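Recall that a protein's primary structure is simply its ordered list of amino acids. Everything else, from secondary elements to tertiary packing, is in principle encoded there. The following example makes that idea concrete.
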Amino acid sequence: MENDPVADRLGAVYPELPPGERAIVRVLLDDYPFAALGSLRALAERAGVSPPTASRLFDRLGYAGFADFQAAVRDGARDRSRLLEFVTRSPDTAENPVPGRQVPELRRAAEDLRTGLDSTLAAVTDPLLEASAALLAEAGAVWALGGPLSELAAEYLIRQLASLRPGALRVPEPAQARARTVLDLSGSDVVVAYDFRRYSPDTARFVRAARARGARLLLVTDAWESPLSAEAEVLIRLPREAAGPIAPLAHEIAVTELLLVATAARLAPARRLAELEALMQTL
């Protein structure tokens, strides 16, 4: 989707839009370009808004109706993963690269990462960290999950958090195990969800079931916001620059590091860590 002018325009105007039109943009970008190629009514239903609300978005963007918007999408859309975009957008990263000529592209990737990390760290404000640390430190149990790539950030959070406090657990994969997990959740428990485009239906189902049992949600998402954003007690939204040259995993890990540092400061877990180190030496 990189360098697609229609998708870029949708992302650029997103912060300025009213909630109903934001919902339309989230659906479009979550399943771009396919979400744009059905009927206006189907698009509105997916976003949970009325067709007139969807029409106002395309009028605001300067298109002569939804059909004109669809024509622009068909002209400019490319169904590519970020990894495929990265390795094909320059002759230096094509199938027959010339040794040494990849340097400019690698420098560009490094600069993209640096810019994204700076923006990400700036977006995680002190109040957000304090609210997150309170949830992670005081919860009866902390359960974390993510999507196809962001599950790695969830795994990292739990591995490190388990050294700081008991009751830090990954949400299991099988549906039956998830059902048993939800069955025992309560209002003292916290779910940490990492949810990025394309937003995970499995994550959404678990979070909504957990919320119905009273569990609280700490959500880490992207600039376009997961559909779960309204469910979150604490919402950490990575900026657009955090998309990265391939995927936002580095930025998710950076945010996770900040959450862990803030939680450790709140728990003061020196004794637990010392006992853990002693046990590791004997087991």
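Residues 1 and 79 are 7 Å apart (CA to CA). The mean pLDDT is 87.
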